[in-house]
Amino acid sequence: MRRVALRTGAVVPPRSDRWHSQPTPTFGGVAIALATIAGMVVVGDWGRPALIVMGASLAMWGIGLVDDAWRLSPLAKLVSSLVVAAFLFFLLRSVPNFGLPAAALTLVAVVWFGGLVHAFNLLDNMDGLAAGIGLVAVAALAMVFSDQLGTGVVGLLAALGGALIGFLIWNHHPSRLFMGDCGSLFVGAAVAGSSLVVMLEQPTINQWTAMPIVLAVPLFDTLFVLVLRRLAGLSATRGGTDHLSHRLVSSGLSEPRAVFTLYGLAVVGAGIGWFLVNARTFAWPLALVFLVGLMLLGIHLARVPAYDGDDFVAFQKAPFAPFLGDLAFKWHTAEVLLDVVLATVCYYTSYRLRFEGESLSIFGPSFGVSLPVVLGCKLVALYASGLYSRMWSTFGLRDLATAVRGVVGGSVLSVLAVAYAYRFERFSRGVFVIDGALLLLAIVATRTSFRWMAQAFATRNVASRRVLIYGAGANGRMIAREMLENPAMGMTPVAFVDDDPAKVGRHLHGVRVYSAEGSLSDLVDRLAVAELLFSTKAVAAGREAHAVAVCEGRGVKVRRLRFEIT
What is the Cβ-side half-sphere exposure of residue 225, based on CA atoms within 13 angstroms? Predict the structure, then answer.
């Protein structure tokens, strides 16, 4: 297909609203569709639902092929997908029975199909991303919902999975072949159509919940982009380099690492979906933790610059711009609502950890009865402790003490309130101990999440200068922390060098300390150091001269840290 695309001129040139920088052949979607059809022929066991889903997928493939050739408008593609969704649902609904009212289910099905199809279309924005996420999605659907899908649809998903594996060989970074709109719409339609088969099989509440979690990455990416574009006053249907993947790269990750990060999130979502469908004990807490984590990641990435020129000026002047900068630190309402979710999840999890079997049936009702009282007590204690006046960006030991004070106070108030209201009948002290420990961990994890993400991205920033800090004292630690938390510096600390034996071999802010007695030249070469920074004046003259000579001989820049108070 690559040769056919080159001969026919089906090549995508670089554009300002696209990520690739080299002209790349398309028609990968043609290969994906043909390979899927061939796989279904080999499987043989089709069935009516599989044929209907395949027909809808081929219809979207045809629409995508027209779009690749003549560039359909976003509205035309949207209307086309909704029309296909309506006919798909009309044909599928006669197969099984369903429980929701027909009108409500029709509306949900049509919107779901159209939204998911275009989610995969939007996700095709970086080498290997849409194909890899599609592979995770079809594998997860086939494994998690195999009973509802039947052998025919599972066979279709297996054939599509094989086609995507073959396509990834050509599409991984640096890509030699694009799938085009025909490929992304085909994959999205197959995934969306298969999910509709599940919806029509009277799914349980766990199965309903598992579906969007299994498909969390494409759905979250679409929601993330559409919301930010609309808030910034930009067209929601325009192309752009403002997706999750692009912002991960802007945060310092390489393209492959950004793509694999999203792969990892997709796999985690698939695993949680499996737990939900199989009614595992901790499925709901895990699902809520996963969703909270996605929300925090989205808030962090929303603060990463992703617009250029006039778009960026418009973005900065938008009425909501201060909202993004302050959401995690000053928007107290969001903090309180987050803590309500965390407190509920931790309290529920503590019951699951403390009781099982018959004892859970005896003590379990106490959870629902006491939850409002416990939530009220904890929110009062957290507010009184001063936790909501603390900034997330500087969360440290003093803030940890505040969190401990608030959590302990909330646990004590909860025990007293339960004892007064219910005489502590069918309650367990162990539940409140476990609950307090879990809530403290959850609060600390959320409050430090932005610092952790900033440091994690900084240490993997392929564009920043790699800095070796000479001196692991107070000044060295301070400048290393500033580098990790301030991407604008464009510097990443890769190692400390110090002559204090007590510090050698340890890690400061995640950066290892090496001995000044060792071979500095080997260290500079092995860590690909671009800059040496002396953070202290207390360096022996001989060692300083040797370090400077080693660096100058390798073209490594040498600088000294100075502080001035005027």
Answer: 27
The residue among 238 and 397 whose pLDDT is bigger is 397
Reply yes or no: is the peptide bond before residue 203 cis, omega within 30 of 0: no
Region 66-75 average pLDDT: 86
The answer, yes or no, to whether residue 310 has pLDDT greater than 60, is no
Structure-model confidence comparison of residues 261 and 15, the more confident one = 261
Provide, for the chain, the percentages of residues in helix, strand and coil under a 3-state DSSP scheme, each rounded to the nearest 5.
70, 5, 25
All structural domains of the chain, each given as residue ranges with its CATH number in brackets, are 2-326 (no CATH), 332-452 (no CATH), 464-560 (3.40.50.720)
Give mean pLDDT, residues 244-269.
Answer: 91
C-alpha to C-alpha distance for 235 and 374, rounded to whole angstroms: 45
d(CA 89, CA 153): 15
Calpha distance 152→147 (Å, rounded): 11
H-assigned helices in 303-364: 309-317, 321-326, 332-354, 358-363
Lowest mean pLDDT among 136-145, 320-329, 395-404, 425-434: 320-329
Residue with tokens 């250029």: 308
Sheet of 491-498: strand order equals: 507-508, 511-515, 491-498, 465-470, 531-534, 557-560
Q: Three-state SS for 169?
A: helix
Phi, psi of 492 (to 5 degrees): -125, 120
Q: What is the DSSP letter of 24?
A: E
207-238 in b/e burial notation, b at 16+ Cβ within 10 A?
bebbbbbbbbbbbbbbebbeebbebbebeeee
pLDDT band at residue 457 under the 50/70/90 scheme: confident
CA-based nearest residue to 297, from 336, 245, 339, 257? 245
8 falls in which pLDDT band (50, 70, 90)?
A: low
CB atoms within 10 A of CB 3: 9
The enclosing H or E element of 11 equals strand 11-12
- Rounded Cα–Cα distance for residues 477 and 507 (Å): 10
Q: How many CB atoms lie within 10 A of CB 310?
A: 8
Q: Is the pLDDT reported for residue 309 higher than 50?
A: no
pTM of the model as a whole: 0.79
**What mean pLDDT comes out for the span 177-206?**
89
Residue carrying structure tokens 């640096």: 174
For residues 17 and 239, the answer to whether their CB atoms sit within 8 Å is: yes
C-alpha torsion sign, points 435, 436, 439, 444: negative
pLDDT of residue 531: 92
